[in-house]
Structures are given as structure tokens and as C-alpha cells.
Amino acid sequence: MISDIIREAETKMANAIEYAKEEFAAIRTGRAHPAMFARLTADYYGAQTPIQQLATFQVPEARMVIISPFDKSAMAGIERSIRDSDLGVNPTNDGAVIRVTMPQLTEERRREYIKLAKTKAEDARISVRAARRTAKEALDKMVKDKEVGEDEAARAEKQLDAATKKHVDAIDDVLKHKEAELLEV
User: Fold this and answer.
1) What is the mean pLDDT of each run of 10 residues along the chain (185 residues)?
2) How many angstroms separate the most distant Cα atoms in the chain?
3) Which of 15, 65, 70, 148 has the most neighbouring CB atoms within 10 Å?
4) What kind of architecture, by CATH, is found in domain 2-25+106-183?
5) Which residues share a beta bridge with 55?
6) Would you tell me the crossing angle of helices 150-183 and 107-144 to the nearest 10 degrees?
């Protein structure tokens, strides 16, 4: 029973780390990569559809992405979605593909992206701590209902604390890597 609570909490904590990694991938760095478009959707026959389901992405050089839509009728929607996004890019359409050239990031923009990354990291840390709190409440309830002893609950709480620290440290490492990537010129 205690092991199930701890396992569930660790799963939620691991999911928080994966969420943080996905969020960091969407933050633009100096290099172009398809993950920057992961959160964007385009209107496709009246439905908001993720762009990654509508096209293929190629990165022929460090600051350029070529987007080839599967259906040419989706091209205008994809182009509009990219233009309206917070990526700060202006796509060009040649009738067959959409080219997105990434401008060089200014120092001010890099600082904004670092601030955004720190916010996303804090959201992930909050999620990890919430998973710990939920598990601790479940353990406290088990002790109150006399399903387990206080010693067992104390050992389980130490395991929870260790798992929480491990996952928060992992989020900090991912953040540190992203900051270094953003500051790289």
C-alpha cells in the first residue's frame, strides 16, 4: 500500500520533468528545430489541428526550417499560425513549401526567454511538490486510520523527500542546460 503511494508520486514527479522538457523545447534558441512548432495549431477545415500533424519539417541549416504541408490547402493556415505565434518569425510561402528563417536573437530577447524558462521550471517544481503533498496526505490518513504504523509512515516520508529532491534537482539541471543554450551566441 505504501509502495503504491510512493510509486504513484514518483510517476507524477517524472511526468512533471517530462512536461518541463517539452516546454523548454518549445522555447526558441538561436538554432531552428521542429519542436519550436509543437504547440502551434492551424485551422484545417474548421478544426484547430497541430501543425506537426499537417506537415513535415526539415532543418537544412542552423537558422532555417522548411515546412512541407501534406495538403496545400492547409498552407495559408499554417503560415498564419506561425506569423501570429510568439516565435517572432515571418514565414515565406513559395506555393510548395513554407520557409521560416530565424533571426539572430538579441540579448534582450534571450533574457526574456530565460525568464520564461525559469517560470516553466518553477511550474514543474510546484507540480513535483504537489505530488509529494498528495502522497504525504495519503500516508497521514493511513496512520490516522491505523492501517500502518508511524515508523513505516516516517520511512515512507523520507523516501518521498528523497524522490522530491531528486526530481527538483533534475528540473534544475534541465533549466541550467536550457539557460546555457539560450546564452550561447
Assistant:
1) 90 92 78 82 90 91 90 90 83 90 82 90 95 94 88 92 95 92 78
2) 71
3) 65
4) Orthogonal Bundle (1.10)
5) 69
6) 170
